[in-house]
Amino acid sequence: MLGGTDNVETSIGHGWQKGPRNAPTVLDAVYHTAQFWGGRTKDLMEQAKGPIQASVEKNYTPERVMATLKSIPKYVEMSKKAFPKEKDPITFDNVAKAILAFEATLLIPNSRFDKFLKGDTKAFNKEEKEGLKLFIEKGCASCHSGITLGGHMYAPFGLT
After folding, report:
1. What is the mean pLDDT of residues 150-157?
2. Which end of the chain has the smaller Cβ count within 10 Å, N or C?
């Protein structure tokens, strides 16, 4: 309903602190070249660790995360199933892998835009088709392209 965002001006974290930016969408994030607005991490695995540790977000240490998870029998059981070949399946890397696996499922499959691109000319109404034509003619598609219409490059922000 909120497009995979928290829909606030700046995200709220630990102790009701306001972060410096709002959260980017988690939808289709697996397809992005880098994560976060500034691209400070290269992939979802790396991204998953950041908010957990950031003082303005979750404010946990890896040790505290693992101790908390190890104190919950259901998480211990699920971790053993998820990482059966590991002696100690609850590691900070495995926490990040589990978050990555979940976030990789947050996809927008078969949207009306996807259907239009696949040749369903009825997926868009006349006004939407005119908007797409304008989007292309004004050059927006030169940056906003690819499977997510962005997320694969970083450029100065502003209208041209």
Report:
1. 65
2. N
